[in-house]
Amino acid sequence: MLYTAFLLGLLGSFHCIGMCGPIAFMLPLDRTNATTKYGQIFLYHFGRLVTYGTIGLCFGLIGKSLNLFGFQQQLSIIIGITMILLTLVPSKFLNRFSISKPFYRIISKIKNGLGNQLKKRTPDTFFTIGFLNGWLPCGLVYMAVFGAIALGDIGKGSLYMLFFGLGTIPLMTSAVFLGNFITGKVRQRIRSMIPVFVVLIGFLFILRGLGLGIPFLSPAPAMEVVNANYNCDDLSQ
After folding, report:
1. Distance from CA of residue 105 to its chain's centroid?
2. Residues 221, 73: contact at Cβ < 8 Å?
3. CB of 79 within 8 A of CB of 59?
4. Which residues lie below 8 Å from residue 14, measured CB to CB, with a gap of 6+?
5. Within 10 A of 207 (CB to CB), how many other CB atoms are there?
6. Which residue among 41, 151, 181, 208 is buried most deeply as judged by most CB within 10 Å?
7. Positive or negative: CA dihedral 61, 66, 67, 68
8. Are 175 and 17 in contact (CB under 8 A)?
9. What was the pLDDT predicted at 227?
10. How confident is the chain (237 residues) per 10-residue block, as mean pLDDT?
């Protein structure tokens, strides 16, 4: 399932360009030295990956907790259905229940921190910008978080979010060099593909939860094997 995270990040980055593209374009890079510039870009992406990995770790822990109670298959099905519903339900309706509203103060502080960091050029600036950038609310990040929970494992949850972050790197790097280089029509066409892909991922999680015995897609649930062979004479001793 990790490949779905990478593809979600790759396709989703066309959406992210609208939100995070300006941040990438405004990075205070040292354009006089190529080595320094590429190092700064690396630190920016590394900061984002650290954030995504941390988010995946936290939500993977939630998935692990539910898995301990034997809910992993049901959780995978529920999350798959949730991803599909959130994609198909009109955004105007979902905006009434925006989960970002209670965190507006925190988000405001993150944006202020980003603004301050974009004015600096200290060695830690680019990592900090990337780290703060990763915490900005994004619908596609929420979808990736659902995937991290559904995997029911701390390590896999963290890897899922890391692969999502890796998928965003190519286009975000292009934004650093070229700015808003994609025309509105092309961006709109690609954005129209994102909901289709999210629904597909939702169906994959549902298949995974059903345990139909399909290798890689819907593996059969692991059954505990108990050895019933024992010597009755031992019980009488």
Report:
1. 23
2. yes
3. no
4. 171, 182, 187, 190, 191, 194
5. 17
6. 151
7. positive
8. yes
9. 47
10. 85 72 81 89 94 94 82 83 83 59 73 85 87 86 89 91 93 74 65 81 85 70 48 49
